[in-house]
Amino acid sequence: MPNWSIYLTPGAPERELGLFCLGAGEQDHPPGVPPERALGCHALVWIKEGRGQFLHGPDRRLHEVKAPAMLWLYPGVLHGYRPTTSWRQAWALFSGPATTALTTLGHLDLSEPVRRYADARPVDRAFTRLLRVSRTHDAVQTVAALYELLAAAAPPRADDVAGRLSELACTPMSIQDYATELGLTVKELREAVRRTTGSTPQELVLTTRLNTAKVLLAEEDLSVAVVARQVGYDDPAYFTRLFTARVGLSPGGFRRSGSVSGRISSFRRRRDRLSAM
Fold first, then answer.
1. Whole-angstrom distance, CA of residue 88 vs CA of residue 14
2. pTM attached to this predicted model
């Protein structure tokens, strides 16, 4: 396949998407020592064929590279290629304020500049799609493909602590009790949740309870007091204040805000009141 490249200059609407592609392409790197440099943006380099070394960081550490492997380049961080055989690579440049959140969530990890995969096919497919859509000049499709690639290329989760915590969230317990239930210390629980969600166990529990409450309010004909108890709050007044502060609507207001189930529930309550007269 011939070498090719495309460079993009996103306009103001594209930048408001939060993540945007600045360029993409494919090329062969012959063996040798090309100049070292630092980029002004993030980049992913997918080594499809070949092997060698990757110089990364101010300490000029050399990392072994054997295809298939992903090289992660960061703004302002020195890097250099050291192919010992000719390698075939695909590359993509990207930037945007969303990179800060992606860093917090562990998708952009400066400590792991070279990443290999037990099954590289999902990453290869995602990179191939990004290369294809980047040439269509469709900003939304390109951003979607870039997110898909970042998700496919992210480090695998060593556990699902956040998922297990969310399953327990509506059971009233302290953070210490949640940690004990999951077989962890509070510190281990905090670190595991932060790695996965970028937030704290307290925030994950609260968000899970509110999300569950929304489902119950929208889809079930339950009183606010019953909903409060089912998501872990014995005091419906406290639940109402908390829900209103975080959601911007009271529980009753959320139910009336346009959900089909909410309208059906309101109709049923009016019908029942009329029947009782």
1. 30
2. 0.70
